[in-house]
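Lab notebook: predicted structure, single chain.

Context: the supervisor wants predicted structures on file for every construct in the current expression panel, including those that have not yet been purified. This is the next one on the list. No modifications to the sequence; it matches the entry in the shared construct table.
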Amino acid sequence: MNTVFSKQDEKDISVEVKLRALHELQTVVSEIDKIKVLRGELPLEVQDLEDEIAGLKTRLINLDSEIKNLDTAINNKKIAIKESQLLITKYTEQQNNVRNNREFDSLSKEIEFQNLEIELSEKRIREFTVEMKEKEETIVKSKQLLAERQEDLERKKTELEEIQEETKIEEDRLRNKSEKIESFIESRLLAAFKRIRKNARNGLAVVTIQRDACGGCFNKIPPQRQMDIANRKKIIVCEYCGRILVDANIHIIEEAAE
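Prediction complete. Output recorded below exactly as produced.
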């Protein structure tokens, strides 16, 4: 359907011509919608995979930093153990030279305290070691998952690029056609069309009468209103869904007008 709008139409545009233009615009944008459906959820899937991969990379960086911190903490505890062992050796030697029981008991308490410090440091080392092992296992799993997601992303991107390449020429042709029709339609009417289309679940702003009902919401249209629609003397919208209504034969009139 290739309706051509003449200069005469532009000077004296009837409601019928406006309805034909809106109907043809709806036909064209519906074809564009079909191309988008062909692409399906691929664009969203690609975006989700890219977000997940970015999150996994950040997670790996954080895990690596946490392991380094744990390794530093373990080394610090090992140093603390050596320091405590040196102090124990020092206090033990001093016990051999004490002058009274009070000094001996005081050194004994220091030795006991350092032994407790060693036990605590060894406990922390065991805990840090277990935590490090868990994080290292998580890194291995995260790297495996990252590799899988990167493969998925490359596959999805390839699929999307192939579909886009296949449909690009047709989509560009349809977009050029829709822009040409839009330039013919007055701005107020075009804005209404786009608003209705945006709010419609199936993207239909202009629908025909089908079996005495609105082709958009399928509510019954009274006979008198159907006659008004068929006369094409004014733009009529469905009182239930707000879509612009045209008669089922409007495309035949368009073809006859070419």
